[in-house]
Amino acid sequence: MRTKHCYKCGYCVRKYDHHCLITGKCVGENNQKNFFLFLLIHFIVSSCAPFYIWPNLISTNWADEKKLNYFVYFEIALLIVSFIFFIFTTITVFVLICIQTYLICTNCTMREYMNDYRIDYLKKIDDPFDEGILKNIWYWLRHNETIWESKYLTIQEKFENITL
């Protein structure tokens, strides 16, 4: 039910989330925890880098240099570009962590979130797999292969039994 064939990888992925351009692999049920850990490590590294670059950028008194040659200009430019790059990377990865955290807490995938109007099982019921934040996190933390069809049918039966 939540499986999708990725044409870039050539594999069918359970609980398909997205195809990651950075890793070149699909993110799904079996490796979503690894992807989240990858994002956390990347965030830690990219957020620490500006704190190492900034002191080098401001501590050197560039005006006192007797000869400002091309190497010094290159060094200044490299420090500024690196600083801006790591700030941008830190913000981008932080946004990705927030999105993944939201998806984990709602037991949703990026594919389902972005394409809910095109996916058949999402047209009838909004968030059919959301069972509350704690239960969703518990499902995510333990490694299992959930039979999503049975969960969906149970939720669909509850939804149909509601009288208006």
Automatic annotation (TrEMBL):
Superkingdom, natural source: Eukaryota
Entry keywords, A to Z: Acyltransferase, Lipoprotein, Membrane, Palmitate, Transferase, Transmembrane, Transmembrane helix
Gene Ontology biological-process annotations: protein targeting to membrane
Pfam short name (any one): DHHC
GO function term, MF aspect, one: protein-cysteine S-palmitoyltransferase activity
Domain Palmitoyltransferase DHHC: 2-116
GO cellular component term of the entry, any: Golgi apparatus
Keyword DNA-binding in annotation: no
Subcellular location: Endomembrane system
The keyword Metal-binding belongs to this UniProt entry's keyword annotation: no
Membrane topology: Multi-pass membrane protein
Membrane spanning residue stretches: 35-54, 74-105
Catalytic activity: L-cysteinyl-[protein] + hexadecanoyl-CoA = S-hexadecanoyl-L-cysteinyl-[protein] + CoA
Domain notes: The DHHC domain is required for palmitoyltransferase activity.
Protein family (similarity comment): Belongs to the DHHC palmitoyltransferase family.
Full protein name: Palmitoyltransferase
Organism: Intoshia linei
